[in-house]
Amino acid sequence: MIMVSLLAFCRARISEIHVLTVEDPLNLDWRKLCAHRKGLIRGFETEVTRKGGGTCWCSINIRATRDEDGALYYEGIVEDITDRKQAEEKLKKYSENLEEMAEDRTKDLRNAQEQLVRREKLAILGQLAESMGHELRNPLGIISKKLPNY
Would you say residue 87 lies in a domain? Predict the structure, then answer.
């Protein structure tokens, strides 16, 4: 019944839906899949198309089993995981956006650090120039005092 409401088919067509859920919407050969996985499929996630044309995500669990006569059939549960998939997609986009923001912030911090280093170098150069100027003015001051004014 869950698959009926999930894919938006009317309840009167349940016998058709049984065929649809196994073959048409998912286009999978369940016999081969179950044989390959030793008769059990767990957490198989796929996107299916609803009757109205929309899509939804499903998690499918199926196991192959036999009835009293030995006929093979499949039991399973189909869970609508559309909300989870949408949340995962939002989280992925948010994570990508967060990474971009971190990269931008890192660039800004590197630029600020480079400017700070440049300013420190200029400040040191200014102090050196001031010190050299002072060292040059002292002897020149003494010499100019000794020379007569012209």
Answer: no
CB 66 within 8 A of CB 91: no
CB 4 within 8 A of CB 25: no
The pLDDT value recorded for residue 36 is: 60
pLDDT of residue 81: 92
In a domain, 25, yes or no: yes
Per-residue pLDDT tens for 67-108?
888 887 778 888 889 999 999 999 999 999 999 999 999 999
DSSP string across 78-115: EEE-HHHHHHHHHHHHHHHHHHHHHHHHHHHHHHHHHH
Same domain, 69 and 29: yes
Which residues span the domain enclosing 30?
Answer: 2-80
Which of the pair, 100 or 65, is modelled with greater confidence? 100
Beta strands in the chain (DSSP E): 40-49, 55-66, 72-80
Whether residues 73 and 102 share a domain: the answer is no
Q: In terms of Cα–Cα distance, which of 76, 9, 14, 91 is closest to 46? A: 76
Q: What is the DSSP letter of 25?
A: T
